[in-house]
Amino acid sequence: xxxxxxxxxxxxxxxxxxxxxxxxxxxxxxxxxxxxxxxxxxxxxxxxxxxxxxxxxxxxxxxxxxxxxxxxxxxxxxxxxxxxxxxxxxxxxxxxxxxxxxxxxxxxxxxxxxxxxxxxxxxxxxxxxxxxxxxxxxxxxxxxxxxxxxxxxxxxxxxxxxxxxxxxxxxxxxxxxxxxxxxxxxxxxxxxxxxxxxxxxxxxxxxxxxxxxxxxxxxxxxxxxxxxxxxxxxxxxxxxxxxxxxxxxxxx
Amino acid sequence: xxxxxxxxxxxxxxxxxxxxxxxxxxxxxxxxxxxxxxxxxxxxxxxxxxxxxxxxxxxxxxxxxxxxxxxxxxxxxxxxxxxxxxxxxxxxxxxxxxxxxxxxxxxxxxxxxxxxxxxxxxxxxxxxxxxxxxxxxxxxxxxxxxxxxxxxxxxxxxxxxxxxxxxxxxxxxxxxxxxxxxxxxxxxxxxxxxxxxxxxxxxxxxxxxxxxxxxxxxxxxxxxxxxxxxxxxxxxxxxxxxxxxxxxxxxxxxxxxxxxxxxxxxxxxxxxxxxxxxxxxxxxxxxxxxxxxxxxxxxxxxxxxxxxxxxxx
Lengths: 252, 313
Description:
The structure holds 2 protein chains of 2 kinds. Chain A is mostly helical. Chain A has helices at residues 3-25, 35-63, 69-74, 85-88, 94-115, 121-150, 153-167, 178-185, 196-209, 231-240, 242-246. Chain A has one domain: Ferritin (Up-down Bundle), CATH 1.20.1260.10. Helices cover 66% and strands 0% of the residues of chain A. Chain A starts with a helix and ends in a 6-residue tail after the last helix. Chain B is mostly helical.
């Protein structure tokens, strides 16, 4: 794989992951558990859409075929999306949304802190901005995990259940393929294997403060690096892309 | 004797255009009127998140998505300031929410109409927010301090929203034939409900008289409605779409447009709960509130534990 192809796919992977997570989180806007929390989660959603926009815009530039961020977001099929599987999972209740967010925020802070040192200036710039945002996101999701774990019996049960549902999608975050190999050599991509120890440590400490334990030896799902997703992504895209696809000539 | 003095002070403040502040004495009717008006306004912001929220997942560009999400979030923020302003009059958020969720409290009827196309998001920004601004600009000078100050902030954001709505309409009106048709259809459906937003005609408006006397309101429903029509006609002309009113005509003598009144029986019907989306809106609010209950309980329980540990330590 050429450097350019790898960089294109890498930017898509990061952009799609932000985009699909934001699309999921935005389902909460106007329906949050209380007003202040509705506003807080929407802030996070806005950051993620903003990041997706920058990354997909860059992917389009790298590809060099004149595709804009909107063409990439609204005119690709699910087989051409590289978002991590964890992002497309249904929100479930607020506990599941929050614990999924905590797992991703923890990963993202480690990841983007490293990407901020990338030799690719655009990715480094996007990462530097993202680190500031993710620091806040992580504080938000972690504090809710602790609140749920120490709140009521119900909140603890829901947190536990939510965690069990998303755990098997966390392994994929650390998967690498030929894209990573090419870009790591050039000092552009982050070697994901270096993040796993810290991530596992932080998440197990978080679970401990929420009186939950880390599951052992669970099977981990895989596929998104090859554009293989669950059934949910097709539905997310059908909804998200409906209007531009119905009016492909239109500008909005 | 003392009451009379308080009343004199209150009247004197009104006469001098001074603000009434939460700790000042105020007539009970003034307080009640304000609680009703401010909490209805807050509810309108919160329920207003739903029709536009309906298009967040389908906004047709990433930029449009960001703008719409931020707008819906602003509305939540407005709800928050307004609930706080109403609380300063001695009611609580729980009481107000309870009134909303049980259907006792009113909110702006406009949000009981459905958003059927992306153009409706534009039309809401352009027309509904435009009408809201017309009402709210006047409320920035309302006599109750906290309300007036909340309105200053809200008005600034609302004018952004209106511009963003008009921008959507511009893209559509100058876009493909299908887009233009979408814009016209949205104008057709939103025009009369928007005119209803100014409330019943002056000849039958039960709450206006006191509101004007107390400077909670400063212009009548009909005056505001007329001003809105005058302003909007030229905007529709620029877009090249037609206001659905055969009687719309410039009246040189009045220096204003003549226009058809909305169907007031429809207005009354929607207020009674028979609008296209009244039930859905209340159900959606109730569902979110009910499903959020365990979250609020968990937060409260955790807060309490922290407090107890602090005391123990």
